[in-house]
Amino acid sequence: MPAVTQTREAVEKLGQSTYKWxxxxxxxxxxxxxGLNEDIxxxxxxxxxxxxWMLEWRLAAYKTWQAMTEPKWAKVGYPPxxxxxxxxxxxxxxxxxxxxxDEVDPELLRTYEKLGIPLHEQAMLAGVEVPEGxxxxxxxxxxxxxxxxxxxxxxxxxxxxxxxxxISEAVKEHPxxxxxxxGTVVPAGDNFFSALNSAVFTDGSFxxxxxxxxxxxxxxxxxRINAKNTGQFERTLIxxxxxxxxxxxxxxxxxxxxxxxxxxxxxxxxxMDDASIKYSTVQNxxxxxxxxxxxxxxxxxxxxxxxxxxxxxxxxxxxxxxxxTWKYPSCxxxxxxxxGEFYSVAVTNNRQQxxxxxxxxxxxRNTRSTIIAKTISAxxxxxxxxxxxxVQPKASGARNFTQCDSLLIGDQCGAHTVPYIESRNxxxxxxxxxxxxxxxxxxxxxxxQRGLSEEDAVGLIVNGFCRDVLKExxxxxxxxxxxxxxxxxxxSVG
Amino acid sequence: MNALSKDxxxxxxxxxxxxxxxxxxxxxxxAGALARTGLPDRKVEAWRYTALRALGKQxxxxxxxxxxxxxxxxxxxxxxxxxxxxxALPRVVFVNGRHAPAFSALPDDVDLxxxxxxxxxxxxxxxxxxxxxxxxxxxxxxxxxxxxPAGVDAGHVMLISLGVAGAEPLSFxxxxxxxxxxxxxxxxxxxxxxxxxxxxxxxxxxRVEDGATLEHVTLxxxxxxxxxxxxxxxxxxxxxxxxxxxxxxxGLLVRHEVHAHLAATRGExxxxxxxxxxxxxxxxxxxxxxxAASDCTSxxxxxxxxxxxxxxxxQGKVLVERIAQKTDGYQMNQALLLSPDxxxxxxxxxxxxxxxxxxxxxxxxxxxxxxxxxxxxSRGIPEHEARQILIDAFLDExxxxxxxxxAQTFCRSVLAARFAGKGEPS
Lengths: 494, 426
Known about the structure:
The complex is a heterodimer. Chain A is 25% helix and 33% strand. Chain A is of the alpha/beta class. Chain A has one domain. In chain A, the strands form three sheets. Chain A has a ten-stranded mixed sheet, with helices on one face. Chain A has a six-stranded parallel beta barrel with strand order 13-15-18-21-19-16. Chain B is an alpha/beta fold. In chain B, the strands form two sheets. In chain B, strands 3, 4, 6, 7, 9, 10, 12, 14, 16, 18 and 20 form an eleven-stranded mixed sheet that branches. The radius of gyration of chain B is 21 Å and the shape is globular. Classes of the chains: A alpha/beta, B alpha/beta. Strand 23 of chain A pairs antiparallel with strand 20 of chain B, so a sheet runs across the interface. Chain A: Residues 156-215 form the SUF system FeS cluster assembly SufBD N-terminal domain. Chain A: It comes from Acetobacter lambici.
């Protein structure tokens, strides 16, 4: 079929073009020597001026990690990772916390500019409030390699009582909160990568929304992997108290690189009674070249717990990057009537491999979950949806709906669906459906006879295929997500 | 080679005294594989939901030479009397894994021989990947070797496997081979039944050659204390049809594992099934359907009704290889939980490497629909009857997929006889 052939060609062309966001910022780095041992962990902890309990926590996690083996069950293949051949700490040698724009490293500003982060607004960066009536502002906690160097909107948030700061700062300034929640959703020993992260995490975000507060703006962290050979180990902890709500955006781009870089983040969400957390991700890390060289290894553990009654956690992700994605944002639905959602678009091209999905663990009565996963595979890539829906005996009235659709573009790629459905309660209802297909000739014909070019038609169909997920993204992100999809596939036919 | 004497920990130890002296290349290589892997635990993905702990701690002895004929007769009558048409069908009866000529009524139009006379291991079984197939390979004594000559419509053949044991556990590992040659047709009805504590570990190697059709119905009514772990391989040729259905009603732990391989274009495979379990029963329907050629079709509908503390397992994988363009695959697994302690674990899986395909799967889990119950009750039907009607209807949608009318009525009669009046809420 010509249109699909064209799409394929265009996609291949895209793969050859340079990664749009592949650049490297030249900023002085403070680096720990390569390797991982207790001394390195002590070094990280002391550089971060952490309290003793934090160091002990890290060391315990390190011990756990040493006893674990790398998981092999995902449908991804990669050469063995030498965990001793990486730097576990790298920090820019500039003083953090700019008071005004002049204090921000101009290199960094240029990086943000290239990234197209809304940070370009000087006032925002300086923390000046947006006048009444303007559009909802976005607070950005920019994570530049391992240390947060700019946090905006602190004041507005502080007035609302919201804490939004680098987690290293939270460890020092809000130790009680961090200690109370850190590792409660994703225990250090949960899996190989979470144990590694717990031992060596360098930074990330901490969000605390107090009782009854609706966070006055959307919070956003832009992750960047910058220095050569520094695995990035972000740690994010979001706690939302009774009746409060927050929307959190995570987006990432990384410089072009030839060596594989390991990224093992941990994200923990805690929602109390009537609280709601919306966590959106646009992931566009360097996927490697057309032969699969280079590219990020993205081994992430993301999990939220709905502790309170009627609480809600919603994950939305658009995954277009990384050489390997290993990621299962999950919800533990403990509170009665709590709600978990997972919306995902995963696009793989060239030699990318993605094994991603979610887990919905229903513990409480009348808990509900929705899973919508859209997978698009092109080139020689492989994409797997792997999801678990588990209903425990006490979760009477639990309800799940899952829909997984895969679209294959080209005959050299693969799309796989591996759902696990486990029910131990007779009053739970679970529905799962999955389809795999290419763009149907009927749909193409329908569009064509209404005057659309073949390219437009394919674009329209791909767009429609992902719409259920894209519409879940916050406005600020939807634009970027669409842009990314276009870059990956759709722009080639439009 | 005496590879097995080294590491005999875990459930494998239960067969230790019988595994030591394998003869012949197939058995030796299987014994080697078995020694390397042991029997699977739940860390093995394919056995994630089914634990072999149920094998217990007592050694499994080889079946005795003599079996009480009246017990066999009673079990056989139980099978044949389920439906009047059954007694008239040709049958091959195995007792504790050995052919029992006195109880058989051999078919005419087919070539028949037995594994005991001339061992045939077939080409499809993979002892190095499937430990239970390896166990069978090492311990197999007998089995049916059936060949339907080209162009022949052989009608019905029943393969009846009876387990007769007391309290002391015994195990048998029959190795069956069924070949339906070019343009031939066979309707095969396999029945498993028995009493006492036994472990039935059959392997069946099926070839459906070009243009041929095999309609295959398996009825599992193993004894209440029985463990039955069977593996079936089906090779499906060009324009041929392998249409299978399994009705799982017991014993204690039953697994029916099917590997269907669509090897040539326009083949068609149906791997349907229904389970109705109660008490402490565990029933596992596992299948891997491989599309290795273009323009093939696979269909799978599995329905589970689980009562008491029963646990149902469904693992269904559809693998579409790169060459298998124009594949049409459909898979549906549905479960009805009748009791607060029942459990279903399902893993429908698609692995797809070709783009011009149409594959879908679905799964649902739920209780009896209150509205449907209310509808029936409001028309004066007592609750237990209303429940029975809904359960029967739920299962019957799978049973109705059995094309062969004789086999279909046989399944229905067995279900009706077993579960009449079992609609009471538990």
